[in-house]
Amino acid sequence: MADGSIVLVEIARGTLSRVTPDGKVEVIADLGGGPNGAAIGPDGACYVCNNGGFRYHEVDGLLIPGDRADDYSGGRIERVDLATGKSEVLYTQADGVAFAGPNDIVFDREGGFWFTDLGKAYGRVHDRGAVFYAKADGSMVKEVVFPIETPNGIGLSPDEKTLYVATTEAGRLWAFDIKEPGEIIPAGPPYKGRFVGSPPGLNFFDSLAVDAEGNVCVATIFNGGITSISPDGSTIVHTPTDDFITTNICFGGPDLKTAYLTLSSSGRLVSMDWPVAGLALNFLNK
After folding, report:
1. In which region does residue 104 sit, left (phi positive, over 0), alpha (psi from -120 to 50) or beta (all else)?
2. Overall average pLDDT of the 119-146 stretch
3. Is residue 286's pLDDT more than 60?
4. Residue 237: inside a domain, yes or no?
5. What is the pTM for the complete model shown?
6. Which domain holds residue 29?
7. Tell me, what's the pLDDT at 108?
8. Total number of domains constituting the chain
9. Beta-bridge partner residues of 249
């Protein structure tokens, strides 16, 4: 944010929170469920993908997310006034189909937003994932890609002609050519998109950010760190962290060369210098 603070979600706590530059954590809004991705919209409010809640397990002092929570409250998109903390539910379904687990979100220049729904696992059943597009005023939401297995991180290329989606369990990055806001140009199977890249070994992909050169920086689980993938997939660089559940990255600082990472199993927000400036987000890093 402009004051140097970081706005983030605490999924297990159920809150949208602010971390001040001196490291103090303040709750902006108690949303319940499982606040997941968050982005600033054209009206200055924060839009939150709420997955409805995970069941958590503590293993050797680390917090590990699992299946749908026993008190799962349903997937939804929420709008939070950062000044007052007041929240409202904007969307809970598209075309009569309820969201299972909205996950991550990105705004385009027109003020609409793309978001992923990871799906939800419970017992032997797993709801399949999807990609949606919606307007910030609550007037329209539609499904754009379905089915797609465990879609998680989502972002836009610098020219906003390409939508990137990272799938968690396969650890793959996909690209979708954008025809206009909310519409893609269908490519081949399996998801109507183009396969960009996937690193060797066991890598679960989480949320992502795009840098100013168009590289897609994907938070990576198990092989904990950030996996940076060039737009054509020819170059893949891994920057390790000390947390095997590294879940998100964003860029800040005066030159956007400070990377802020969420290390989720240990519950930490860290920062580090990044070799390439991050891509300025619409309605935030201007």
Report:
1. beta
2. 97
3. no
4. yes
5. 0.97
6. 6-273
7. 98
8. 1
9. 261
Instruction: Quote the Cα angle for 208-63-128, to 5°.
Output: 55
The owner of tokens 């947390």 is 243
pLDDT reported for residue 88? 98
CATH number of residue 62's parent domain: 2.120.10.30
| Mean pLDDT, the chain, integer | 97
Cβ contacts of 31 within 8 Å, gap of 6 or more = 14, 15, 16, 48, 50, 78, 80, 87
Structure-block tokens of residue 126 = 């797993």
The confidence score (pLDDT) of residue 206 equals 98
Q: Evaluate whether residue 82 is within a structural domain.
A: yes
* Residue 285 within any structural domain of the chain: no
Predicted confidence at residue 131, as pLDDT, reads 98
The strands making up 268-273's β-sheet, listed across from edge to edge, are 246-252, 258-263, 268-273
pLDDT at 153: 98
* Paired strand residues for 267: none
Q: Could you read off the pLDDT of 78-113 as tens digits, one per residue?
A: 999 999 999 999 999 999 999 999 999 999 999 999
What is the number of alpha carbons within 13 Å of residue 176 lying toward its C-beta?
29
Per DSSP, which regions of 20-128 are E strands?
A: 25-30, 35-40, 46-50, 54-59, 62-68, 76-80, 87-91, 93-94, 97-98, 102-107, 112-117, 121-122, 125-126
* CB count in 10 Å sphere of residue 123: 7
Neighbouring C-alpha atoms within 13 Å toward the C-beta of 249: 34
Residue that is written with structure tokens 């183009």 in the block:
194
Diameter over CA atoms, the chain: 49
Distances in whole angstroms, Cα of residue 123 to Cα of each of 50, 120, 127: 21, 10, 11
